[in-house]
Amino acid sequence: MNKVLTPSQTSGPLFGFALMREDLECSVDPATDAAVEVKGQLIDGQGKPIAFEAFVEFWSGKQSVRARALKEGRFRVVIAKPLQTQLPDGSILAPHFNVAVFGRGLARQVVTRMYFPDEPEANAADPILARVHPTRRATLLARPGNSRALRFDIHLQGEDETVFLKLGAERGGSETSD
Hints:
Elements: H1 7-10, H2 16-19, E1 35-43, E2 54-60, E3 63-68, E4 74-80, E5 85-86, E6 92-93, E7 96-103, E8 110-115, H3 120-125, E9 143-144, E10 149-151, E11 154-155, E12 165-167, E13 174-176
Parallel strand pairs: 1-10, 1-11
Antiparallel strand pairs: 1-4, 2-3, 2-7, 5-6, 7-8, 9-10, 12-13
């Protein structure tokens, strides 16, 4: 039986040498009080890590970081925790990072958000997070790590698939892909 490859299966290679530099993983000095270390893993639909063929980008406001998924799909970034944001309609977005995943096999990047576990009241009032089914919200919440470290794994498919969003240019709004 012949398999027919779709465009997303033939994308690549990932030109990391042109998109990555070592200084892109930190937006702030890791020793500063504002620094938050985010460690995670990229996982495919079969539960296997995606290594070397993908990278993640975190951004909020004027800061952004980018990290390659290394051995076992692991990545690490250091970035300052953002503040709440008020939208033009008066609603408040909880502190969060927008997160994009780029990689071989993806025709274009997928986008999600990472919310903070120490912000339960802000998360409960966030209009974007409220649009996500309650049983799926945990895929958008980082898990506490040690000290100022957080854990945020991204599952591209499968039972534990991370909720992905369609970010709109207006108001920083989004729609869920759920």
